[in-house]
Design brief:
The complex is a heterodimer of chains A (455) and B (113). With 455 residues, chain A is α/β, with parallel strands linked by helices. Chain A is 37% helix and 21% strand. Chain A contains 18 helices and 20 strands. In chain A, a hairpin with a 6-residue loop joins strand 14 and strand 15. In chain A, helix 3 packs across helix 13. Chain A is globular. Chain B has 113 residues and is an alpha/beta fold. Classes of the chains: A alpha/beta (455), B alpha/beta (113). Chains A and B meet through helix 1, helix 4, helix 11, helix 14 and helix 16 of A and strand 1, helix 1 and helix 4 of B.
């Protein structure tokens, strides 16, 4: 830490944090240099961060809000944890949702809580790449790390995503312009193809932009598969998909003749009709191409540790999201145990929302149930959101990667450590969830003893 | 028309400032529309339109987008509270609502102030 003399004669305590990790998106860039105004607990510069990363680091300041509230009245953290535990234990169908913007260490505290309350655990994956997760189970995942992409890939395909706006450094740090071991000339050694229904800012980076008709991803992917296998493709394919047979054959030749091809795919596939069938078709295309060359596929993940949430929930329950414990053992069934569905059907009577804001981006009917008196909401979040505003119990937490350390997984399943910049008066998710786990256990044991179930 | 909610840089930067702040509200209530569709419907930049379907409705401002960037019949909005009002809850047993392919009717609501 240094004391720097300012021009206005105010001495400012400044700290530099090197190789800090940005957890705004799934790129999890861990090469950011932060300048921290220690006295005012604020980050003043985030060198090498993208526009989203800068907004992430510079806007997470210490806000003037109570640490905990019950029905909008300020309470102590312990009182809030006690009420949250009581709410979860007394509920008939408690659900826990979110988890993609917190550290793995906090995520792992949640599964035993859900097990104890015979509840349901789901992460933001279910409304992100959940369908891709289902497709992995059906088709498999021809996987890689972003380091391999940087060093080896000479054909980069983006499908149904706009990284220029959602993951701005994906091009520069991992996939398009970096100079790698077998791609020493960066962009010059690579061909970039973008498939989308809109000509987004990402099209500026692509050598070939393929504009397909909305909702026709599956049809185009399946036709590409047919062309790869040398089968005849429908003569009216342009009418169906908006892409001509000549373009399809040209793309297939490029894919078959590259040294190392990558298919990065976004929510243009998972959030449209077809969902997991779309992702499955893309994964199958990547698998097919391995008959000719090396080809891999990877979903471009959104939140900073959504990949960690998949990993932690998977190794603890056997399934990545939408897991129910009501029979005492984990069961996975998307559509039944996923959060949009449990809210949409009005089943959940308690919902603990961790680092997420379903009240602002879920379907209308699901939000209506969340807001109704039939469902008691517990919220853990770093900022005031639509969800925290209406929560029965609202706990303000510190920000991972800025105030707390821990582990997050990059979108390619590589674990990365966080280097916090300054302390926060708000507790971390790990602290809150560890205390909550203990309290829930205590209440569950009491309940079992009372009902004579615990011998 | 088909409404595609999605991410944008401004949506990303404004949510870091706070979802209850004015900037985020403005960003998530600004609809992009093909400029030729806009002309055909007698709309101008900044006008308000009502989007509706069987699920609900939302009133948003409009911004022209070049026809080569956004095809006729397709609308884009940074996702948030307004797009949620039009999103169906049924997930087709997948857990995922059709968040990027919503059929909506567009009507002129009011002139730009």
């Amino acid at each position: 830490m240094s004391a720097r003399k300012m021009s206005d004669d105010v001495v400012k305590n400044e700290k530099i944090v090197e190789n800090a990790t940005c957890t705004f998106c799934g790129c999890v860039c861990d090469d950011i240099t932060l300048t921290v105004d220690v006295d005012n607990k604020v980050i003043t510069q985030a060198k090498d961060a993208c526009v989203l990363g800068k907004a992430w680091f510079l806007n997470h300041v210490i806000e003037d809000r109570p640490i905990a509230r019950i029905d909008n009245k300020e309470v102590t953290l312990d009182e809030a944890i006690e009420e949250a535990a009581k709410t979860l234990v007394e509920a008939k169908f408690p659900i826990v949702y979110g988890l993609s913007d917190t550290i793995c260490e906090a995520q792992r505290q949640v599964v035993p809580i859900v097990d104890d309350i015979s509840g349901t655990i789901d992460t933001t994956t279910s409304v992100c790449h959940g369908p891709s997760g289902m497709a992995f189970q059906g088709v498999g995942e021809p996987s890689m790390t972003l380091g391999e992409v940087k060093n080896r890939a000479d054909l980069i395909v983006y499908w149904g995503g706009n990284p220029a706006e959602s993951h701005p450094r994906h091009f520069g740090r991992y996939a398009v312009t970096p100079q790698g071991m077998f791609t020493p000339n960066g962009k010059k050694d690579r061909t970039v193809i973008l498939f989308d229904v809109r000509k987004t800012k990402s099209a500026g980076v692509a050598d070939i932009f393929v504009q397909l008709k909305p909702g026709k991803d599956f049809e185009l992917l399946w036709t590409l598969r047919a062309a790869v296998k040398g089968k005849k493709i429908p003569s009216n394919i342009e009418e169906i998909t908006g892409v001509s047979p000549e373009t399809i054959h040209d793309l297939v030749e490029k894919m078959k003749n590259c040294q190392y091809g990558v298919l990065f795919f976004g929510m243009g596939l998972t959030m449209t009709r077809g969902r997991h069938f779309n992702s499955g078709a893309l994964l199958a295309l990547a698998a097919d191409l391995n008959e000719f060359t090396h080809f891999v596929a990877k979903p471009v993940r959104g939140h900073g540790n959504v990949t960690g949430a998949d990993n932690v929930v998977s190794w603890q329950t056997g399934y990545p999201f939408g897991v129910n414990f009501s029979r005492g053992y984990p069961r996975f069934n998307p559509g039944e145990y996923t959060t949009v569905d449990t809210l949409n059907r009005g089943e959940a009577d308690a919902a603990m929302i961790i680092a997420s804001d379903p009240a602002s981006n879920f379907p209308k009917k699901a939000i209506a149930h969340l807001k109704s008196k039939k469902c008691k909401v517990i919220s853990l979040d770093t900022k005031e959101t639509h969800t925290s505003e209406m929560a029965h119990v609202a706990i303000a937490t510190s920000t991972y990667g800025i105030n707390t350390g821990g582990t997050v997984y990059r979108m390619d399943d590589v674990p990365i450590s966080l280097r916090p910049a300054f302390d926060s008066p708000f507790p971390g998710d790990l602290e809150v969830l560890t205390k909550l786990r203990k309290k829930v256990r205590e209440l569950v044991l009491k309940k079992r003893k009372k009902s004579g179930k615990d011998k | 028309m088909i409404l595609i909610p999605g991410r944008s840089s401004k949506q990303g930067t404004s949510l870091n400032k706070g979802k209850l702040k004015e900037e985020y509200k403005t960003v998530t209530s600004t609809l992009e529309i093909n400029s030729e569709d806009m002309q055909r419907l007698g709309l101008e930049n900044g006008d308000k339109v009502k989007l509706s379907n069987d699920i609900g409705q939302a009133v948003v401002s409009i911004k022209a987008q070049k026809p080569e960037n956004l095809p006729s019949g397709v609308l884009f909005i940074p996702y948030g509270p307004h797009s949620s009002q039009l999103m169906e809850g049924d997930t087709g047993s997948s857990g995922m609502p059709l968040s990027k392919h919503m059929e909506v009717v567009i009507e002129k609501w009011s002139k730009r102030k």
